[in-house]
Amino acid sequence: MEASNPEPRFTLSALAHDADCAGCWPESGDTLRVRLRCAAGEAARAEVCYRSLYDHVGPYRSVGMAMALSDGVSDVFEASLTLPDYRFRYYFRLTNRAGEDLYYTSDGAMDRPPEEGSCFFYPCINPADVPRAPEWAKGAMVYQIWTDRFFNADPRNDPPGTVPWGAPAGRGVEYGGDFAGIVCQAGYLKGLGVQAVYLNPVFASPSYHKYDTADYTRVEDCYGGGEGLKALVAALHGAGIRVILDAVFNHCSNRHPFFRDLVEKGAASRYRGWFLPRGFPVDEEAVNYDTFAGLVREMPRWNTANDGVIDYLCGVAEFWTREADLDGWRLDVADELNHRLLRRLRERLEAVKPDVLLLGEIWNHAHRYVTACQLHAVTNYKFRTAALNFALQKTGARDFWNAGQANRMYYRTSTYPLLMNLLGSHDTARFATLLGDRSAAVALCALLLAMDGMPMLYYGDEVLMEGGADPDNRRAMRWDLTQTPEAAEIRALMAFRGQSECLRKGSLRLVKAEGGLLAFSRETPGSRLVAAVNFGPEAGLETPGRQLLGNARTRVGRAELPRNGYGIWEDESWSG
């Protein structure tokens, strides 16, 4: 007999389990991680009951589920299930505050354990479906460099019309920065503690920004060419720093020879299926073809579902990964790329370099792209929005925390160390300008660097460079600002993050969120740190031990944080 519908002991519309994606995924060859969502505060206990999919008579095993996330609207419970034959049948049992049980199944909520056919199924764990990522990238601190704007060490390769360093930024302005300049500053980068450098596009292009590639086989001579790129990678590797290049595979320049062939030959072009024309002849004035953002005629979009395009772009990435010993690629406009390209690119690049990183530029939720066979990591602009609102006191500490929890609900737990948290990039105004307060900007950097994920700093962020909307956010690096007290504070925070295993890989747990004060812990079996920031009036916090960094005033187990205060403490009694 089928179980009857239950009385409304829970908010039934809030119950959710996705037997795929961020609701269910394999952790290893025989272990499955499952999640259940319910309305916040309603479940006192949650457990999952499971057995082998092909065991029709044995008892169900049961394992308690821990609350993994809560954003004030929903609670998410998680548990791991292990079976030697890696084939799963399961259902959930929830207990409310009154001690009443409810069973959640693939056929909805029930008031008694379900029949076999109403259970959720995970038919088989295939080894290729287990999420994996380069170990070096988990929690790694990344530093973004616009080569032309960082440091000019070789004036001989300056492009015509190079402007003096520090001249106002503008569209088309070039300052002469080059790979040799980055090599000159390798010691500076190492001192910051960064684990990886991400370079804006370096391939031949008619524009100053290089996001319209005309020739993927040639590195810009004004940067140092292909040999200069190889020398840069070797130098940074020598300093223990990985190198990630920008892959602009969504579109190219209208000067690319394949697009020129299409314009000249129309429907007879061998590249007819490589782009997305809306008719023939291709008219660059009328722009009767798809482009970047649907607006930029100089940037026609590749048809990334086309096998020829996929093979061509994968070949570009393979060649330079091998030729220059690259460690990863940041895929521009990754959420417009066809999934077939992403899967093929991942497969082919891992054959060249097994620990290569594929990072996608995606401004919204990206769970469809972060899978075992597509991207490893994505930009986390949701963090930027929430962090700036918190620092500007538009929202409080609890709002910031809840926003982060809500965002995490879209991702597998294994993705958290690979969410690239950022406060700014070449596409945004500088956060120091947006805040208008240097002490608040330092505290915001402390928040970024103490959180989990991959913190990314855009060149000059560490010295609180100013800059409004594009192109003002792309000013030449202010090396004079490296001597300011604020730069010294941020440099100390970065160096600490760079050497702290706990901040790189530790779990994240809320300690306190009240008003403008947020405190959280980072924990590994061997270490526990507590970090706090305060963007409101002076506030107090119980602290676990020795203060390592920050402007908080600590006395015997308690700290006072002024407005824009921050601190990191070591829990010396922690045993894991």
> Structural class, from helix and strand content?
alpha/beta
CATH architecture of the largest domain: Alpha-Beta Barrel
Sequence stretches where pLDDT stays below 50 over 5 or more residues: none
Question: How many DSSP helices?
Answer: 13
The general outline is globular
What value does the average pLDDT take?
96
CATH class of the largest domain: Alpha Beta
CATH superfamily of the largest domain: Glycosidases
End-to-end separation in angstroms reads 48 Å
- The number of E-state strands comes to 30
What fold name stands as the CATH topology of the largest domain? Answer: TIM Barrel
State the helicity in percent bands: 10-25%
CA-atom Rg in angstroms: 26 Å
Biggest sheet statistics:
8 strands, parallel, barrel
Strand content: 25-35%
**Order of strands across the widest beta sheet?**
11-12-15-18-19-20-21-22
Q: Number of domains in the coordinates?
A: 4
Describe this structure in words.
This protein has 576 residues and is an alpha/beta fold. It contains 13 helices and 30 strands. The chain has four domains: 12-129, Immunoglobulin-like, CATH 2.60.40.10; 144-246 and 304-502, Alpha-Beta Barrel (TIM Barrel); 251-303, Alpha-Beta Complex (Oligo-1,6-glucosidase, domain 2), CATH 3.90.400.10; 504-570, Golgi alpha-mannosidase II (Immunoglobulin-like). Helices cover 23% and strands 27% of the residues. Strand 7 (88-96) and strand 8 (101-105) form a beta hairpin. Helix 8 runs antiparallel to helix 9 (397-408) and helix 11 packs parallel to helix 12. The longest helix is centred in the middle third of the chain and has 18 residues, at 307-324.
